[in-house]
Amino acid sequence: MKSVEETNPTPIEQETVMLPDYMTDPNAVLKDVDAKWRYNQPPDYSKTRKYYSETKSKNHAAGSLPHLVENLVKNWEIEASFKTQLSDWRTVDFSQYSFAINDGEPVSAEHMLRVGTYNAIIQPGRRRRSSYYDPTAMDFGASHKTFKRMMPTFAWEVLEVYTEPPVVAFKWRHWGEFKGEYSAVNGAGENVRVAPHNGLIDITGVTVAYLNEKMQVTKLKTWFDSDEMFRQMDPDGQAVRIPMTGCPIAGDGNESVATGPVK
């Protein structure tokens, strides 16, 4: 599939002055000081942005379609993760918005707001995935704590854009360094722990974004192998499973001894 060439500007690229700020500035929605934020203030993305600038694989020209799409998705991620009131989301038309992974059942903005972005993306089902993580056992706060502790900076970039608005198909990359212990609940109700290897976790996927006339997202459909993160996280199968008799996230001390590596 041929990508949109950055050297041949499209109409949307030629009219950047008329575009919403969330397409021209990756941090636009962080300036929404009057929004309802999860921790009562906008989050700090400075370390992630620095890591992105130092390790990205693409240098999209300012105003190019890949650059605009990348900014839109980055602002969408901020809103979906940290804005607690749907009416404050500027990047999506929440009256129409739906989100689907790997041809799964679409979920609403309300669902994503309730369970969190990680739980909306990592769906239960496949054997490997469920042996490391169960989104139904991890609430919004626990899921974000797990992955933020594991990868303090988890950068994202657009690799290629294949089609132009209003239906934008693009390939992306999501990457970070595994620096903190991974600890989560799996499908068997066990606490799974993986020691950090300090190496790179690098995931790619494809998304199709449907946009309205305001360049707001009305529908997102994403395809990627979420098992790939766990394969890279634990390539030698050294994770341990700890049967829990209490709450594994709260750490109430009711853990039994580890039973060995997850296979």
TrEMBL record:
PANTHER family for this protein: PATHOGEN-RELATED PROTEIN (PTHR31723:SF10), PATHOGENESIS-RELATED FAMILY PROTEIN (PTHR31723)
Protein name, UniProt field: Pathogen-related protein
Source organism of the structure: Xylaria flabelliformis
